[in-house]
Amino acid sequence: MRPQILTPLFAGLRTLDGIGPRLQTLMRRLLTPHEQGGEAKLIELLLHLPVSLIDRRARPKIAEAIPGQIATIEVIVGAHSAPPRGQRRIPYRVSCSDETGYMELIFFHASASYLQKLLPVGERRIVSGRIEDYAGRPQMPHPDHVVAPDKADDLPLLEPVYPLTAGLSGKTMRKAALQAVARLPELPEWQDGPWRAKNGWPEFAAAMRAVHSPQSEAELLANAPARARIAYDELLANQLALALVRKRLRKSAGRATKGTGVLREKIVNALPFTLTASQGQVLQEIDADMASAHRMLRLLQGDVGSGKTIVALLAMASAVEAKRQAALMAPTELLARQHLNTLTPWCEAAGIRIALLTGREKGKQRERMLGQLNDGELDILIGTHALFQDGVAFKDMALAVIDEQHRFGVHQRLALQAKSGARGTDVLVMTATPIPRTLLLTHYGDMDVSKLLEKPAGRQSVTTRAMPETRLGEVMDRLEKAICDGSQAYWVCPLVEQSDVLDVTAAEQRYAALQKRFGGKVGLVHGQMPGAEKDAVMQSFCENEISLLVATTVIEVGVDVPNATIMVIEHAERFGLAQLHQLRGRVGRSREKSACILMYKPPLGDTAHARLNALRETEDGFAIAEQDLRLRGGGEVLGTRQSGLPEFRVAALPRDVELLSAARDDAKAILARDAQLSGERGEALRILLYLFERDEAIRLLKAG
Ligand code: ADP
Ligand code: MG
After folding, report:
1. Taking each helix axis from N to C terminus, what angle separates 21-31 and 170-182, rounded to the nearest 10 degrees?
2. What pLDDT was estimated at residue 558?
3. Which of 427, 452, 477 is the last residue of a domain?
């Protein structure tokens, strides 16, 4: 249960004056763009910070007002002149004066009766807005504020400017934010006193008040004390939550799982290649973890094509040798099925019983499989999210391997653990996108990391070229020739907005066009296709029955068809760097030369240009990941947008990387001293966790 003291901050926006259903919806989309429905909360509004400032402190006389600048001027209202009837393009003008001269207030499409009330002839008013020069005379179109002199205090001399969305005005936003600020309770301090003093940071509520009423441009900077404090709070909540998850996973004591090497040897003998030194090294690290009584929590990073799948199988084989079970979880059905196809022959060579469970396995067959799983008659289960479903129970799972982890959230990881019968399952997480150190910390906390630094021998580099879409014909010609020579190719269609449906239309159209030229040699896969159809197309591409596979980004992660050597990406400018790297990683998987053609629609923006260049310059996924982080925010690199993991609202990476490492150390020290967060500071920290919606972590505390 969330502490009472936070209740006002978790009230819906509609509890604010002036916010009805329409504005609430607009604000919700602005504040929580990744959530569907629900109502935005005050805390979300409070964490939506101004990006700039309108300074109305300049108080010139009319004659001193400088065109182009914001001025606040006290005037005597003179004559009104309304436009002639029906002449809507002529403005309504109000003449004003002071002792130095005259100026006009200009209103388009205005209501005369409203303006007569607002600006009564002969009265004094303070007006504030941008001054323009009209044929040598000053005027102020649509003043932002008009107040009577005795109401001068109502006029905000320093006005914060918030990021907005169509239909939402700055005024509405400011009024809402001010009300939210006024409802802030004084919260107990969760930060370490000396640390806060050293940084000169205000208390939380004071910091919130300050960020919403900036007094200078400097206060808008990320290193301004109030802002830095809130960013740190957010990072601390994140690091504390991760530390709690990690502790919880570690606490349920692990078990020693020691293989005999018998099955592993059989598999290795059946492989058409020898393991790389890197693969051998990583396996040793995994073996050592599994054999120890500690629970393994290891992240295996390997660039695309570095051969993670076989490492996973050999690790799982150890578990089977110890008469236990293992699970391999993939983010998509397509990948799960591919893993089954790849691994089955090798498992057969070793007598390992392997099966697949996705949402599609139903009825009797599913029942039988689950029965076998429960009785220990299955050794390895491969699957998708379906592995979480009720009724899935292992007899004795020793190892869970999670492939392409960044698509899963922390809670899913925990759910899989629960399936093991809570007996300290070892966990190996594999990511295809190399993750920069900073992001590792924010998303995984301190996991142990193994890296596959080496690619299998004999891989050719992939020739990468960028071409404007005007050269589509040329690309087609070359493709035709390559296909005649027996090559296989992918053709990836653009991501249109974030909408699956539009992606599909684009892919279908391209498919139709390519079919005209290549006939039955072309296949199409996309996310909206029924699973069985997808499989059939993938299968015929694997078996080289079709030469050209038109696809949406469903093939982004993990697909492995070594014979494919050409990757065409349409509208490459719309993809992120890491995503392009993943896509390119689908080729260059054999000894044949491979090519990646990045088609783009000119003109290229700066960032898109930098992205395509980076891709041409290097194939090193780690270098690309660092570059990607520089070019965009952290959340996107990991694909957290899709996975629904919370992104930071105030903190930002890599900008706040120093605060991040401080927060990590802080979280460690906190839990070392007060593991249950039960001391005075601990209680306050619980409030922090709720405040930043890390409720999940609190549940872990309770579970103890
Ligand atoms: P990823 O790390 O991207 O998941 P995969 O596990 O799909 O890569 O491996 C890519 C390809 O390399 C597969 O066809 C796999 O069989 C092959 N492979 C893996 N290890 C080696 C090796 N040591 N030598 C040669 N080929 C290998
Ligand atoms: Mg893979």
Report:
1. 80
2. 66
3. 452
Distance CA 473, CA 478 (A): 9
If one compares 567 and 110, the residue with the highest pLDDT of the two is 567
Assess whether 129 and 266 both reside in one domain: no
* Ligand 2 ion: nearby residues, β-carbon < 5 Å: 558
Instruction: Extract the runs of DSSP E, i.e. beta strands, from 373-461.
Output: 380-383, 397-403, 426-431, 448-452
What is the C-alpha to C-alpha distance for residues 201 and 580, in angstroms, rounded to an integer? 42
Both tokens assigned to 526? 């996309």
- What's the pTM value of the predicted model, to 2 decimals? 0.66
Distance CA 37, CA 657 (A): 33
| Mean predicted confidence (pLDDT) in 34-49 | 87
Residue-number span of the structural domain to which 127 is assigned: 57-155
| 125 pLDDT above the threshold of 50 | yes
Which ligand 1 atom is at minimum distance from the Cα of 403? 4
Q: Are residues 146 and 37 in the same domain?
A: no
Which residues, 6 or more positions from 235, have their beta carbon under 8 angstroms from its beta carbon? 442, 648, 651, 656, 659, 660, 663
What per-residue confidence (pLDDT) applies to 644?
35
* Continuous segment of H or E residues that includes residue 125: strand 124-130
Atom of ligand 1 nearest to the CA of 312: 6
Distance (Å) from CA 560 to ligand 2 centroid? 8
Task: Choose the residue to mutate in 582, 589, 590 for probing ligand 1, maximizing ligand atoms within 8 Å of C-beta.
Answer: 589
Q: What are phi and psi of 603, to 5 degrees?
A: -80, 150
Q: What is the pLDDT of residues 452-488, one digit of tens each?
A: 988 888 788 899 999 999 999 999 999 999 999 999 9
